[in-house]
Amino acid sequence: MYLRNTWYVAALSSEIDRQLKSLRVLGENIVLYRTGDGNPVALEDACPHRKLPLSKGFLKGDFVECGYHGLTFDCSGQCVDAPTQDRIPPTAVVRSYPVADKWGLVWVWMGSPALADEAKILDIENFDNPEWKITTGDALTCECHYLYLTDNLLDPSHVAWVHRASFAAAGTDNVPLETREIKDGLIVYRWIYNCEPPPFYAPLVKFKGNCDRLQHYEVRYPSVAINKSIFSPAGMGGPGKPLTDVSYVMVSYNFLTPVDENTTRYHWLQHRNTDPDDEEVTRNIADGSRLAFQEDRDILEAVHKGIANETRRHINLGLDAGSLKFRRMLDKMIAGEQANIREAQARAL
């Protein structure tokens, strides 16, 4: 069961063009493309005649022609041509999904079209600030349930063991975590004081010596994660303290889109407050981030299989408090949404 009245990332903007692209989101098959003026379109990827995927058809102008018998559908999903007969069947309709193109990503709304509002898409601070640099984004497919990824992204402690050569450093294995609930999600965080910068960040910080380090792990419902790392010179960091002239800030935006119950499409981009014009630094960060996310994927795919095949119930630890609370709140949101859908269906009878 998924939260439907929300935006999910379907693809990088660069992946959607004047070709028909087949994707699967929340267990539903979707075909995406762009119109001649560049707007993205998302339709149900199944012709209503014999359910041939429309992605196996042809793009004719801004319309999609089925590759079996030529039924042609406009951007709203309405059939506008049935070449084998004079009358277009009134049931020749496919679902059209609201879509948006923002932050270099194509977003799709899987719930009620009437509720789709682009203002609900996550805001990315400093996106157009020339003093900050944002990567163009990347993606990978994880053969695991999306909530194992949200669990991971509410767990700063895992870096001590999963990312030994990159994000791990003193304190990541033993400094207590704090949890804070926000309006649309949950934050798990901690400051680690007077420690060496971890290997991934050591070449990036603009000061010498030890640092005070913030690990900020935030997930917005249902599956958008924001990881913020702040490094200030030792003695100058901590809650409420302003950034110094040499403080380093990296924000990682993670967009987790359920393909189905066993697969997740993981999109991300990074934003940093230094070296906006240094493409070598950008490449190194992009390469290092992808490697780290592949380490996460290897672990979580094995977790998915392990829990699916468990003969004795798995246990929870204290460090799971944030992810467990997040799951409980998300379950309530999904249950409430489903109740609203049932009530609307009952009123329609």
The secondary-structure element order is: EEEEEEEEEEEEEHHEEEEEEHH
Q: Can you tell me the number of structural domains?
A: 2
Q: What is the mean pLDDT?
A: 95
- CATH fold title of the largest domain: Naphthalene 1,2-dioxygenase Alpha Subunit, Chain A, domain 1
**Total count of helical runs of at least 4 residues:** 4
The fraction of residues in strands falls at 25-35%
Distance between the termini: 24 Å
Detailed description of the structure:
It is a single chain. By secondary structure, this protein is of the alpha+beta class. The chain folds into two domains: 7-119, Rieske [2Fe-2S] iron-sulphur domain (Rieske Iron-sulfur Protein); 129-330, Naphthalene 1,2-dioxygenase Alpha Subunit, Chain A, domain 1. Helices cover 20% and strands 32% of the residues. The protein is built from four helices and 19 strands. The protein has helices at residues 146-152, 159-162, 279-308, 321-348; strands spanning 7-12, 21-25, 28-34, 40-44, 58-60, 63-65, 72-73, 79-81, 96-97, 99-102, 105-109, 133-134, 138-142, 178-182, 185-195, 211-220, 224-233, 248-260, 263-272. Strands 12, 13, 14, 15, 16, 17, 18 and 19 form an eight-stranded antiparallel sheet that branches. A four-stranded antiparallel sheet has the order 2-3-4-9, with no helix packed on it. Strand 16 and strand 17 form a beta hairpin. Helix 1 packs antiparallel against helix 4. The longest helix is centred in the last third of the chain and has 30 residues, at 279-308. The model has no long low-confidence stretch (mean pLDDT 95).
